[in-house]
Amino acid sequence: MQITGSIKIDVKTKNLVKRIKPGEIAVIDHLDIDEIAAESLSEKKVLAVINANKSISGKYPNLGPLILNKAGIPIIDDVGKKIFEVLKENDKVTIIDNEIYKDNSLIAKGKILTHDIIKYKMEECKENLEIELNNFIENTLEYAKREKSFIISDMNIPDIKTNFKDRQSLVVVRGKDYKEDLFTIKQYIRDVKPVLIGVDGGADALLEFGLKPDIIVGDMDSVSDKALKQAGEIVIHAYPDGRAPGLDRIKTLNLEKAHIFKAPGTSEDIAMLLAFEKGADLIVAVGTHSSMIDFLEKGRKGMSSTFLVRLKIGSKLIDAKGVNKLYRENFKISYIFGIIFSAMIPLGVIAYFSPPTQRLMKLLELKLRLLLGF
């Protein structure tokens, strides 16, 4: 295998995919490549992926490497973090098997993740899953005890202008199948016109579907400037101690419509709580993280806040994650003939009982009798 191309390099894959172009090589530092990252790289039609880290560590069965492999994108794995010292954006490199060259000099070696190697590593991960699940449950319960006061006691909800009264809300998160699920419920969005809440990159998903987010909630690390400028309001997720890393970016953009929401947990948790506390009739969630694998992919060891939030808002929450798989039927040509046949039946009945048609039928009957000699 020999591949030559320009690179885009970033320690955060979600930042890299915003600027990489088809035919370029992605250089990342991504432990356990997740589905969303792999699908994003695949959609960009990258030439290859060079990972400074382990694409499959063995902690859990992450599907990212398998997705890239199926897309025909080679992965040069575990090349070491030194590659970030010797490469810079738009450098040209050549990959020969498991070796990486720049200006004809060898700069790094890695491992080529073939389909068989990926499958073998995935089986190893499954054996470790029970241990990981046990640790995950214990961590979730431990933190739930610490954070329960946040859910039970009065929360300092931002004083936003968006009106939720007698309205439904749609919370969009950049999670698995979020685009497919949004497409599936587009008629619901048109008919009901819910309050649209984009959680970080979920706001850009709304824009892709021609929808303007009423509110963007998050730490502002994966949402575009375009989405932030078009949003009705912005709610910055801050740590319980008041630190809000996303505030600097909002100030840089000179946006004065931002509120601070101090809370533990994830941004999608506080987005749902915001809708609930402001009186939304129903909360529909798309792309949310709700399983152990979801949270391990996000680098979290538990899901205490999500567990507590769903306990509180459960009566109003409809999780539409994966709704696109609920019913998906292939279009068949027989459907067209069925529709035509159904439409012809009433036309045939009307024509049969009309006087001109009856006279024509009588004439045909007389001619037939004369021909047959009756």
TrEMBL record:
Sorted UniProt keywords: ATP-binding, Kinase, Membrane, Nucleotide-binding, Transferase, Transmembrane, Transmembrane helix
Domain SteA-like C-terminal: 321-372
GO terms for biological process, alphabetical: thiamine diphosphate biosynthetic process
Listed InterPro entries: Put_SteA-like (IPR047795), SteA-like_C (IPR022215), TPK_catalytic (IPR007371), TPK_catalytic_sf (IPR036759)
Entry's Gene Ontology molecular function annotations: ATP binding; kinase activity; thiamine diphosphokinase activity
Chain ranges of the Thiamin pyrophosphokinase catalytic domain: 193-233
SUPFAM superfamilies listed in its UniProt record: Thiamin pyrophosphokinase, catalytic domain (SSF63999)
Domain of life: Bacteria
Transmembrane parts of this sequence: 333-353
Entry keyword annotation includes Transferase: yes
Xref: NCBIfam families: division_SteA
Name of the protein in question: SteA-like C-terminal domain-containing protein
